[in-house]
Amino acid sequence: MIVGPSKRHRDWATFFAAQRWQPEDFARLVESDETGSAFFEIETQINGLYRALQLAHPGQHRFAPATAGEILGEAAFKARWLSAAFEPFRAALGPLQRDLDLGLMRWMRRASCLSVVIGAGATMDAGGPSWAALVGRLLARLTEHGREIAEMRLTPESTPDNQEYRRLVTRRERLPADAESRARAVLALIDAGTADVEALMEGAQICHDFLGQALFTDLTGILYEGPRRPGAIHQAIAELAAPIAVADRGGEFPGWDAIITYNFDDLMGEALDEIGLARAAYAMRGNQVAGDPNERARAGGPNGLHQPIYHLHGYSPRRLFLITQVPFVFSTAQYTRAYGGSLAGIVGEVFARCLANPVRHALYVGCSFADEAMNDLLRQAARALPGRYHYALLRWPGDSRFEAAAAEEVARASATYVAIGVRPIWFDDFSEIPGLIRCLA
């Protein structure tokens, strides 16, 4: 299916310019056009409605939910009407909806208006641990070995002119009895494969309460153990990150509007380094968003073109890196302390720039949507910007292959995600993910 401008563009323009939109006129126009062309014209109109408002408010290029009702008004109403009117035609396509959405995202990415959000699945694809496995290993280490208390002491070989220090473990502290009991209970659930999100959060909280920031020394060692390198998903995303010329925006832009990650590791950044692209990782340092550019980005200067990577929950690269002021979100209490229910810091920046920006879209890759705090950001954006969706690569839950699914089955499986403003891009096997990403070239 080809998704692109319609040969009946003038007819669509006439319909959109009408004082009143009649459902029967809309239906006749869709039915008389190629589906991919009709979809493109409708989505372009929705984008245009929101873009016109941005141009009319040059001092505010993004709309926060708090002001959306005041600013969006008629545009939001029309966008909702168009999306709802086309929904029956989309639903009737069943599995072919995937071709529609991939085709539209291809246009978005070529305009540098598409971000990619990567979750734990990308790290697992590179041989890293799942969240459950990571929490399990940290709990096992904690219950077996406790916490090292160490100090730096001068070596016997030191001289006044050449002082050498060695780290010396002076004692070990064990978990308090109650905390150890809870830790072993969570570990048993993980070993049995029955630990839910709340149990994993409790396990993470036990580790952080006892170890503090020292926890992330252990965590970093696990993330990069052995010869771990960027995986196939990282590499596919990196291939599409090269700068692109966007004629109607008057210049060159990153291949992705942004790369957003929930992961602590820097494997995505390493994949960009391997193909020689300028990139910078952004994370919180204290109360500020701070950047960590690679050599190419530093050479380009502060205003140079580079691919931004936003680490929402913390950042720990492979190399020696001071993390004492980098906040990590690894548990419920940490999330509350870091964000407190407000859109502050890096989460607020990403929300405004990508998730709630009416002419920007995101593709979620390797995300389970088990994090309700992050899901709530999507709900807020969906309520503020009706008719505008993000996308997610998700494994098909049906018994048969996705291509053989009935339209009603696709609708049922998609409903939960559509309700929070996300259109699923279903696949049958995780090995398909890199190829689906490359479809956006």
What percent of residues adopt helix (DSSP H or I)?
40-55%
Let me know the average pLDDT. Answer: 88
Task: Tell me the number of strands.
Answer: 12
* Cα-to-Cα separation, first versus last residue: 16 Å
CATH topology of the largest domain: Rossmann fold
**What is the CATH level 1 assignment of the largest domain?**
Alpha Beta
Structural class: alpha/beta
H/I helix tally: 19
| Alpha carbon gyration radius | 24 Å
Strand adjacency order, main sheet: 8-7-9-6-1-10-11-12
Largest sheet: 8 strands, mixed
Instruction: Outline the low-pLDDT stretches.
Output: 63-69
- Count of spatially separate domains: 3
Secondary-structure map:
Elements: H1 9-17, H2 23-31, H3 35-56, H4 65-72, H5 74-92, H6 97-110, E1 114-118, H7 120-125, H8 131-145, E2 147-154, E3 165-173, H9 177-192, H10 197-211, H11 215-223, H12 232-239, E4 244-246, E5 251-253, E6 259-261, H13 267-274, E7 279-285, E8 288-293, H14 295-300, E9 307-311, H15 332-339, H16 345-355, E10 361-365, H17 372-384, E11 390-395, H18 407-418, E12 422-427, H19 433-438
Parallel strand pairs: 1-6, 1-10, 6-9, 7-9, 10-11, 11-12
Antiparallel strand pairs: 2-3, 4-5, 7-8
Helix pairs in contact: 3-5, 4-17, 8-9, 8-10, 9-10, 12-13
